[in-house]
């Protein structure tokens, strides 16, 4: 008895099994984050610092150009939102973005369904895939130069339209205030639809063929199969792509700047190009920061909807 008591007295305390198991689970959970923490901290600082600085600049007047900028609060936002050029840029951005998103989805869906058809030979489908994807692999600079040449008054587009008798005079596609925004939107749609075609095609190939066979047995025609099977099955993909495309297009800068520069007479001015001009043409960095914050907030609102949609899908 005395030996047993001595052994018990000298033995260290043993943690309860449940507490030890909980500690192991915590270490297993935290260990990967411990290794990743330096990278996470650096990325957080690099991403958060520009946002904080730009937001701070938007609250002061004449930042960068003066040593002691004056705090003006929200006055820059009032000035910008009442600026006629910014209002024009915002309206152009919405028209450009919404039209691009809708046409990207419709054209992408149409070509994806054609490439998914069993009526075309495999060789033809492979050739079409290669041809249709070409606009997507071109950089914005190449797309801009290509369409500037084609839409030139002496370019191939006017030549073809005059040859077939659709027009009787040369049209200034990118120099007309009435046609420039539509022409620019068409170029953006042409350059971006292959991504949507490929993504939707992947979704179509994931739809079970049994659903279509059962619908045919029930007498459903092509339109009814499209409406009751294809579109509901593609709904998660289409919604996700629409929200992502909205974010991409509302921030579009390179294609607009290289093609028209926001002209003529602000006809194709977007928030992105106007933000750039405020900073590097007018040197109004405070107003440029304000415009950047507004664009950032608009993008974040759509991004939050996208994240919620993704979580809801899970």
Q: Might you state the CATH topology name?
A: MetI-like fold
Helix content: over 70%
The topology string of helices and strands comes to HHEEHHHHHHHHHHHH
* Tally of individual domains: 1
CATH architecture grouping:
Orthogonal Bundle
CATH class reads Mainly Alpha
Q: Roughly how many Å is the radius of gyration? A: 29 Å
The counted number of beta strands is 2
The count of helical stretches stands at 14
Q: What is the beta-strand fraction?
A: under 5%
Task: Summarize the main sheet.
Answer: 2 strands, antiparallel
Average pLDDT over all residues: 87
Biggest β-sheet: strands ordered side by side in the sheet: 1-2
Low-confidence stretches: none
Q: Superfamily at the CATH H level?
A: MetI-like
Overall body shape: flat
Measured between the Cα atoms of the first and last residue, the distance is: 61 Å
The secondary structure category is mainly alpha
Protein name: Carbohydrate ABC transporter membrane protein 1 (CUT1 family)
Transmembrane segments: 33-60, 94-119, 131-150, 179-204, 285-307
Region (Disordered): 1-22
Keywords: Cell membrane, Membrane, Transmembrane, Transmembrane helix, Transport
Structure notes:
Residues 1-11 have a biased composition (Polar residues). The chain crosses the membrane at residues 33-60, 94-119, 131-150, 179-204, 285-307. Residues 90-306 form the ABC transmembrane type-1 domain. It comes from Propionicimonas paludicola. It is a multi-pass membrane protein. With 314 residues, the protein is mostly helical. The protein has one domain (74-311): MetI-like (MetI-like fold). 74% of the residues lie in helices and 1% in strands. It has 14 helices and two strands; from the N terminus they run ααββαααααααααααα. Strands 1-2 form a two-stranded antiparallel ribbon. A hairpin with an 8-residue loop joins strand 1 (60-61) and strand 2. Helix 2 (17-57) packs antiparallel against helix 14 (285-313), helix 4 (84-115) packs parallel to helix 9 and helix 9 (180-205) crosses helix 11 (222-250). The longest helix has 41 residues, at 17-57.
